[in-house]
Design a protein that fits this description.
This protein is mainly β and about 650 residues long. It is globular, with a radius of gyration of 27 Å. The longest helix is centred in the N-terminal third of the chain and has 7 residues. The protein has a 20-stranded antiparallel beta sheet that branches. It has a 5-stranded mixed beta sheet with strand order 5-10-11-8-9. Strand 15 and strand 16 form a beta hairpin.
Length: about 650
């Protein structure tokens, strides 16, 4: 069991705000009373004697709505809260959000595992996905800067209808700052413990008055790591460094046209992972035995204290162990109004990411065969002929080198009827394409050759997703509103690869002098031979189709109270099993693909503004049933019943606070 270890950053911290000359200065002091914003019919006026909470506008349903009116469970973190709470990345967001957790289990890697309402994943795509201005964000979001955001919205429950694939537990949407029509800007410096040095600056203003505005930002985030490695005396486990830049243009030639273009680039350079190994001697459940002969054993319960864990890794084989990543994203969003309130929206997204990681995959400096790598012994034969012996004469036998290149393109079109009518509708179409190439070598010799021990494979993966969606909404009365939404999606996945071919042979060939390699104690497959040449494996292809609805009923008995009920279905994309087990699956009459994971969620919620706007409270009760869970072994179904509460309040003696339970 590998346990991520991470110390709090920036505590204590010093923040200095520097304002660029010639720009409009914003208030230096933070007001203790939140300002109110008019949203629809709700109005609030803040005075020193009667503080009220700021009205928060969200786009959880891809249109602007008041947080207290939207019939979904949403936690919104505003720009003011991001700065005040010191939120630095997606992991920090989870610390302040009820029913949401996100842990950097293996550093800022290419696989995210956000958990909403306890729905965690082990294999396959994540159960919840990240978006930037409603555009899907693949790969790691841990390096997505939060300094340039207006707010972060955590939307809980299945969101397949509006957000599509991999959102059957929820969606997290980063809403970026809009270019302003007046010149303004800010520069910040944050210093903290463990070598934290964060520097950022942004500026915004008009290019053509009332027509074209810009926003530009740069940042450098650095964290020196908080843990020592006793194996090689390194003191930078968990170190992170990110450089980022963002440029945004907003064109508004008229009241009915709003076009925004965004380009952002980021570069990460992280140190060795901060991971502690909890040994198998602590395993206490699903232990191997007659009923579970193949089980490796698991640990159930609270992780052991750090003093009992192993923290040591081999970091001396390569000059730059850790993670390197570069990413470029671009988005173009156009909103065009026409007729008497109709709106057409086009959202286009593109991203390219290069990712590489070098690490000790034993997480404990394990090097069983290092002593055999001695000049006193005869060197292995050159080329593939020497690989059978070379693999046992390699220091750092568990060193992993993994590289990944991912490119995405998405296009969404939406047409919406006028919002001021009792009967409203939305129709839309979505297209997403992703190419993902991965190379992983779990054993490298000093001369950079890969030997046939462990996973030394190439994977070429392509994905296409097409969807049609729509919704109908009707105001039954002034207080009652019913909504019906639906999405039909087609998810096509292709995968091709190459790896070393191995062939089971008689156990006698693993005897001294034989050409076999002993890989296990199995009498039938324990002895193999390999050509030492990487060969292609079968090309896999599968298409998954889904039809997912959501039905919502909202009742507003007063302007300050919203009650809602909804039924929603979600799906998590299917995929392919590991190539090593495909022959076994074929012999059992099974296909290479595993099915989509699905969920059915029934939810009751209440949102209330109390004490003349000083308190906002929400309560949600939900029942979720999961089927076709994607685990290391099949699970047919399970169910979770939980409740979440969130509260925000203000007082005349303190700033707005947020609590949860």
């Amino acid at each position: 069991m590998q346990t991520p270890i991470r110390a709090p950053r920036g505590v204590p911290s010093v923040v200095a705000s520097l304002f660029a000359a010639g720009l409009v200065l914003s208030a230096v002091s933070v007001p203790t009373v939140a300002r109110a914003q008019t949203v629809g019919p709700a109005q609030a006026v803040a005075t020193p004697d009667s503080p009220v909470l700021e009205e928060v506008v969200v786009t959880a349903r891809k249109r602007e709505e008041s947080l207290r009116d939207v019939p979904l469970t949403v936690t919104a973190v505003t720009a003011e809260s991001i700065g005040r709470l010191g939120i630095r990345d997606a992991y920090d967001v989870a610390l302040y959000t009820p029913a949401f957790s996100n842990v950097a289990s293996f550093g800022r890697n290419s696989v995210e595992r956000p958990v909403i309402r306890g729905q965690a994943n082990i294999l396959g795509d994540p159960n919840a996905s990240y978006f930037v201005d409603g555009v899907f964000l693949s790969g790691s979001t841990s390096n997505t800067e939060t300094a340039n955001l207006e707010r972060i919205e955590v939307i809980k429950g299945p969101q397949a209808v509006l957000y599509g694939r991999a959102t059957f537990a929820g969606a997290i949407n980063f809403v970026t700052r809009k270019p302003s029509r007046e010149f303004e800007g800010r520069a910040t410096v944050t210093l903290g413990e463990h070598g934290q040095r964060d520097v950022g600056a942004w500026a915004s203003g008009p290019v053509v008055e009332d027509r074209l505005a810009f926003y530009a930002a740069v940042s450098h985030l650095e964290y020196g790591g908080a843990y020592d490695n006793p194996l090689d005396q390194r003191d930078d486990l968990g170190a992170e460094r990110t450089k980022a830049g963002t440029f945004k243009l907003r064109w508004t030639p008229g009241d009915d046209i709003d076009v925004t273009a965004l380009v952002t680039g980021q570069q990460d350079d992280d140190g060795p992972l901060a991971i502690a190994l909890q040994g198998r001697e602590f395993n206490n459940c699903q232990l191997p035995g007659p009923a579970l002969p193949r089980s490796r054993g698991y640990y159930c319960g609270v992780a052991q204290p750090l003093s009992k864990l192993t923290i040591q890794q081999r970091t001396d084989l390569f000059p730059d162990p850790g993670i390197d990543r570069s990413r470029v994203r671009a988005a173009l969003t156009a909103r065009i109004g026409f007729g008497e309130g109709y709106e057409f929206v086009s959202a286009t997204g593109w991203s390219h990411e290069d990712y590489a990681i070098a690490l000790d995959a034993s997480y404990a400096g394990y090097d069983a065969f290092g002593l055999l790598d001695s000049p006193a012994l005869a060197p292995p034969l050159p080329g593939a002929a020497g690989d059978p012996t070379r693999q046992f004469r390699n220091k750092g036998a568990f060193w992993r080198i993994q590289e990944e290149r991912r490119e995405d393109f998405s296009q969404e079109l939406r047409l919406r009827s006028p919002a001021d009518r009792a009967f409203r509708w939305t129709i839309g179409a979505y297209y997403f394409k992703q190419g993902d190439d991965l190379t992983r070598d779990d054993k490298a010799t000093p001369d950079a050759r890969i030997v046939p021990n462990g996973a030394a494979a190439l994977f070429y993966r392509d994905l296409e997703n097409e969807a049609l969606f729509g919704g109908l909404e009707y105001d039954i009365t002034e207080r009652w509103t019913a909504t019906a939404e639906f999405r039909h999606a087609r998810d096509q996945r292709r995968q091709a690869g190459a790896q070393f071919a191995t062939t089971p042979v008689a156990p006698a060939r693993c005897a001294p002098g034989g050409d076999g390699i002993q890989v296990s104690t199995s009498p039938t497959t324990g002895c193999i031979v390999s050509s030492g040449v990487r060969v292609p494996v079968a090309t896999l292809e599968e298409t998954f189709k889904s039809d997912k609805p959501r039905f919502t009923l909202r009742w507003k008995p007063t302007d300050d109270l919203t009650l809602f009920a909804n039924y929603a279905e979600g799906n998590k994309p299917g995929g392919f099993n590991q190539p090593a087990v495909l022959p076994l699956l074929e012999s059992l009459g099974k296909g290479a693909a595993y099915e989509e994971e699905e969920s059915v969620n029934v939810e009751l919620g209440a949102k209330a503004r109390l004490a003349d706007g000083r308190i906002f409270a929400s309560l949600t009760l939900f029942d979720t049933e999961l089927t076709n869970q994607q685990l290391t072994q099949n699970a047919s179904a399970c169910r979770a019943r939980r409740s979440t509460t969130a509260t925000r309040w203000c007082s005349t003696r303190s700033r707005c606070r947020r609590g949860s339970s």
